[in-house]
Known about the structure:
The chain is mainly α. It has 43 helices and 11 strands. The chain has a 5-stranded mixed sheet with strand order 8-7-9-10-11. Strand 9 and strand 10 (about 450-460) form a beta hairpin. Helix 28 runs antiparallel to helix 29 (about 730-740) and helix 33 (about 810-820) runs antiparallel to helix 34. The longest helix is centred in the first third of the chain and has 31 residues, at about 135-165. The chain is globular and about 85 Å long.
Amino acid sequence: MIRIQALGGLSVRGDDGQPLSGAAAQPRRMAMLALLARASDRGVARERMLALLWPDAEEDRARNNLSQALYALRRDLGGDDTIAGTKELRLNPDRVSSDVAEFRTAVARKDNARAAGLYAGPFLDGFHVPAAPELARWVDDERQALVHEHLRVLEALARAATAAGDVAGAVAWWRKLASADPLDARVAVGLMEALAAAGDRAAALDHARIYEALLEQELDLSPDREVVSLAERLRREPASGTPAAAPRAPPERPRAPLLAPAAVPAVSASTAPAPAATVSAAVAPEEPIAPGSVTPPSMEVLDGRDTRVPTADVLGAPALALPAARSRRMRGAVAAVVVAVMGAAAVAAGLYARSERRGPARVPVVAVGHIAGYDLGAGAGGGTAPLADLLATNLARVPGLRVVSAGRMLEVAQGAGGAADTSAGAQTAVARAAGATELVDGTLYGRPNGRLRLDLRRVDLATGAIVDARTVEGPDLFALVDSGTAQLAAHLGASAPAGSVADVTTRSLAAYRLYVEGLRRYYALDWAGAERLLGAAVAEDSTFAMATYYWALTTYEAGAAMARMQRAARLAPSASERERLIILAGLALRSSAPELGPIADTLATRYPDEVEGHLYRGAALMMAEDFLAAVPHLQRAMRMDSLALRVAGGGRGDACAGCEARAQLIYAYQAADSPAAAEREARSWTRYAPGSPGAWLALAGVLVTRARPAEALVALDSARAVGGAGNSVVQDALALHWIYVGNYARAEELLRVRAATGASADQGEAFWFLAIAYREQGRLVDALAAARRHRVAITGREPPLGPGTAPGSALLEAVMLDELGRHREAAALFDSVSRGRVPGLAPSRFARHRAWTLTHAASALAAGGDTGALAARADTVAAYGARSGLGRDQRLFHHVRGLALAARGNDAAAVDEFRAFIRSPTFGYTRSNAELARALLRLGRPAEAVAALQPALRGGVDGANLYVSRTVLHELLAQAWDAAGRPDSAAAHFAMVARSWRGGDPPFRARASAAQSRIAAPRT
C-alpha cells in the first residue's frame, strides 16, 4: 500500500516503505498527490489541476505538462491503477492511502481519538511549489480548514473526558487544545478547571498567568474576565491535598476564526517597500559584533563607517539615537534584550512553539535532559557532561525525528535562571519551553569490567508518564550513544542513522568535554571563558566543526572571527546536517552572501523546533529589504525564544535569538516607515525588559523620529539609569539625540568631553559624531578636521591594506570633502576606499563594499558636474552589486543611472531610476531621496518631492543616512512645500535651515540668510 502523509509536511512512501523518488518526486507532482489525497473519493477535475499548478502556461502546454506528470506518477507509484479517472482524477483507495483522507473520515464518523492521533501537524507544512500562487492560496485555505477541524476534535475529546469524570484525560486533552489555541479564553478556563480538579491548583494559576502574558504580547489585550474570575477564586480557595471533583467544561460558544499572525500595520503605497530584491552596504570589517549575535547585514547602520564593524547591524539600526550600536559595547546592550516574564513564561514559550509547529504529534519532539553518573571509570571520559549533547546530536540524525539541540536547551535553561539546576522538574520545564513533547534522560554507570551502562527513559511531557525505558552497554560514550540512538529509533519505528556519532562530531572525548563546557560558558555569557575552552577543544581536534563555529562566535576580533567561521564552513561537511546548515547560514550572514535565504529555508523546514532557522529566515528577508515579509519570521523567533528574553543585569549582553529578533523587528517597522508599529514593539520591549539599556535606547530612537523629543529624553534617562551614567553607548545615543533635534551645543559639549578624556576607541567615536554635528551646522572646515581626527584615532585598529588604498575610516573624510565642494578629491578618496580588501574577506562581502563605495564616488562626481563616466560606473556598480547578497547592492546601479539621466536633463527617466532603487524610504541611501526630490521639483511635481523627503527625515543622521545631511533635507523640503503652495509648512523647515546654518561657513551662512528671508517674505 502506498502511503501519503500530508499532515505535518508531505511525504510519499511506496509499497516497500521507502520514500518516493525519481521524476514523480518533483514538487508539482508531489503537489498533485496532495491535491488528490485531500480530495479523497471526490476527485479533482483536470481543469482544477491545471489552474492550480500551471496557472501561467498556455493551455496546450499546461495539458501536456499534466499528462506527463500523470504518466510519471503512475509509473513510479507502480501502475496505471494508482490514479483513476480521466476528467475527474482520484486516488485508488485499494492502492493508495493518506493520513489526510483518514483524518477526514474519522472526523465525519466522530471518531475523535482516531482523528487526534492522525493530525501530526499543519497540512503540507513547509511544502512549497514555486510560481504557483493559486496553489499556495489553496494550501492556506485547506490548512486553515483542517486546523479548525483539529481544534473541534480536541475540544470534543476534552469535553467528553470532563463529562465522564476522567480527570487525567481532561487535563491531557485541554492541555493539547491550549497548546494549539493558546489565546482562547474558553480553552484557558477548561484547562485551569481540569488542573484544579486534578489537585494541581498551582499549575492552574500558572496557566492563567501564561494566558495573560500571551494575550498581552500577541494582541495587547486584557485577559478575559472569566479567566481572571476563575484565577481569583482558585487563589482564595484553601489548599487541598486531594484532587477536587471533576471539572465542569466551560460553556460552548461558536468558535471564532483562528487568529492570524500579528497584524502588520498598514503602510501607504508611497512608503511601502517593494517586493523583495536583494540588498547592499559597506566596507572592511573592524570591530566585531558581540559574541553570539546573529544580526542580518541589511540596512547598514554602519554604512557610514563599515570599517568600524565587521557586519551590518540591524540591532543598531532601530533608531537615530542608536549610532553606537555598531560598536561592541552597544551590541552588548542591544543584544541584551530581555523580557521580565513570570515564571510561567517557560511553559508559555512551549505553548507558542507547539501551537505554531504542530498539533499533538505522532512523531515526538525530543529533548535530552540530565544524565546522572555513578561509579564511572576512564571510559566515561571524565564525566557525563558530553553525553547529553552527543545523544541530542545523534538523535537529530534519525530520519523524521525532531530533536531539540543541546545548545537550545542550554539557552532556554540560562534564560530560566541558569543551567545548573539539573533536577527533573527544572529539566522538564526547560524541555517544555523549548517546544519538546518528550524528554529523554537517564543514568550512566561504570561496570566492573571497565565497560559502561546507560539507562535511558523517555518521558511524555504532557502527562509525566514514562513511555519507554532502555539499557545499553558499551566501552565508551560514543558506543553508548550509537547503541542508545539505535534502540530509541527502533522503538519509534525509524531507522538508526548511518555511521557513528563520532563521524559527525569528534573522536576525542577530551575535545568533546571541552566543547560542552565551552557551550555552557557561552550561554552563561562568559565570553572569555568560552573562547578559551572552545579554542582548547579545537586544539585537541582541529577537525571539530561545531567547536570551531562556536569559537568563531566568541571572539571580538573581526579578522579572527571570520577566519574561524570560514574554517568551520570548510569542516561543515563532516558535521551533522543540522549543524552543517547552521554553520553555513552563520557564514552566509556574516559574508552578506546570497546563499543565506535558501539555507535558512532549508534549516527552518527541516528543523522547525530550532529558533535559528526562523531567525535566519527573517535575516535573509531583511537583507533583501523585504521588511514586512520578515515580520512573521522574526515574531516566530521571538515567541520560540520568549524564555530567553529575560531581565538584563549589569549591562550584560545575552546570546539570545529572541533578543535579536525583537530588535530586528523594531528596525523592520522603522525601515518600512511604520513608526507606530515600531513604537508598539519598543514599548513592549521596555515592559518585558525594564533593566535593558537597549530597550530604552530603541524606544528613545523611535520617539524622536515621531517628533516627541521630550518623551525620548525620558527613555534616554531610563537607559542611563539602568546602563550607568558613564555608559559610552548611552552617551553616544544622547549626543545623537541632541544632533537630531538641532541642539548642537549640547551635543558638542558631551562629545568634546569624550574626545578629551576617553580611550582611543571612545575618542574615535566622539570625533565621528562631532564631525556630523559640525556638518549639520554648515561648519564644514571643522567637520573635515574632526573626520581626520577620527581616522587618526582608530589607526592601528584597522587591518593592513595594499598600496593605493585607503581604510574605511576615510569614508567620513570623503563625505566632508564632497560637502565642501571638493568633489574630485572626494570621488578619488571614495575610489581608494573601495579598493581596500581585508585579507580573508569573503567575495560577497568585498562586492558589497565595492558597490557601496563606488556609488558614493559616482554621487560625488555627479555633484561636481563630472558626468561623462556615470553610465560606465553604473555598469560597474551593477556587476559588483549582483555578487552581494544584499538587495540594496543589487539595485544601487539605479541610483547611478538616475544621476546620469538627470545630468542629461532627462528628469522623468531619472525619477523612475531613483524610485527603482529606493526600498526603505527612511533607512536607505537617503541621498537618493534627495536626488529624487530635486528631479521632481525640476519637473514641477512638488507634492511628490515632499513624499520622498518626509520619510528620509524620519531616518537617522548616521549609517546609510550619512550621505546627505538633515539640514539639506530640511532645505529641500522647505522648497518643495513652498512650490506646493504651502508657505506655513515651508516656513517651519526654512526656520530649521536658518537656525542650523547661521553660524556656518560663508556659503552656508548665505543659505541661512536666504531661508530667513524666505520666511519673512510676504505670502501671496
